[in-house]
Design a protein that fits this description.
alpha+beta, about 290 residues, N-terminal domain of MutM-like DNA repair proteins, 4-stranded antiparallel β-sheet, Helicase, Ruva Protein, domain 3, 6 helices
């Protein structure tokens, strides 16, 4: 699933190509793509027509398009393979095209939602006074949000009876961090993924947050991380941060810091990548 940098790259593209355009009509080509819109495909299409799209917004991994003249937003679930593409109207339909949105202006582009695995989709939701779709109002701010509270995050970690990687992936504590960037930030911080959160001092927490931000900003600068053709920006282009990864996916390769072979361990139906020397397993207190 795309993490904060990948979603932000898509958001920026949508801001350039879609913001302040009025919807002429929407066409749902696969009902599964609007399954989270409980009123169904026909209702979804009808309720978009005639409304003006505001500036696309994001919190963590969540992306939405506010409708300027309503109290509703289009929430995009990218899932594992969802793509929001801005395409010429004359471009051939993609094999896995699920939704098409056309606009009333004279621009010759349209917005397409393409999803090979059909895990993602679009849906309409009420917008809270804070500007979020109501179904994601519980999601914490992300570390690139100017209003993210570092001290509150540290205190939450100290109260949690969990381990640091679990905490980083807990979207109610900090949003936008997924498996890839958690491993990268932990490697930079020299922290093992099973380090108990209660053992983190304030300086260690602040150092970790600095590395989370640094790695995300570095990924943003090159368009995010793409391991295959499923993650692309709105113009269909892949990101290149996979070439700069220090931990994720580097099992057996030398640690870029000390030369020790990187390891991979199964973790919560995922994998964790780490350096056994730079990120030693935490001691178990007796």
């Amino acid at each position: 699933m795309p993490e904060l940098p990948e979603v932000e790259v898509v958001r920026r593209g949508l801001e350039r190509w879609v913001a302040h355009r009025t919807v002429a009509g929407a066409e749902v080509l696969h009902p599964r793509a609007v399954r989270r819109h409980l009123a169904g495909a026909e209702d979804f299409a009808q309720r978009l027509a005639g409304h003006r799209v505001g500036v696309p917004s994001r919190r963590g991994k969540y992306l939405w398009l506010p409708l300027e003249d309503t109290d509703q937003s289009i929430l995009a679930h990218l899932g594992m393979s969802g793509q929001l593409l801005v395409q010429p109207r004359t471009a051939p339909d993609e094999k896995h095209l699920r939704i098409r949105v056309r606009f009333t202006d004279t621009a010759d582009t349209e917005l397409r939602f393409v999803d090979q695995r059909t895990f993602g989709g679009l849906s309409l939701h009420e917008t809270t006074p804070d500007g979020l779709p109501d179904v994601i109002a519980h999601i914490a701010r992300d570390p690139l949000d100017p209003l993210f509270d570092d001290e509150a995050f540290h205190q939450a970690l100290r109260r949690k009876r969990t381990t640091i990687k679990r905490a980083l992936l807990d979207q109610s504590l900090i949003s936008g961090v997924g498996n890839i960037y958690a491993d990268e930030a932990l490697w930079r911080s020299r922290l093992h993924y099973e380090r108990p959160t209660a053992t983190l001092t304030r300086p260690r927490t602040l150092q970790l947050l600095t590395h989370v931000r640094d790695v995300m900003n570095a990924a943003l600068a090159v368009g995010g991380t793409s391991f295959d053709s499923l993650y692309v920006n709105v113009n269909g282009e892949s990101g290149y941060f996979d070439r700069s990864l220090d931990a994720y996916g580097r099992e057996g390769l030398p640690c870029r810091r000390c030369g020790t072979a990187m390891r991979r361990r199964p973790w919560m139906n995922r994998s964790s990548y780490f350096c056994p020397k730079c990120q030693p397993v935490p001691r178990v207190s007796s």
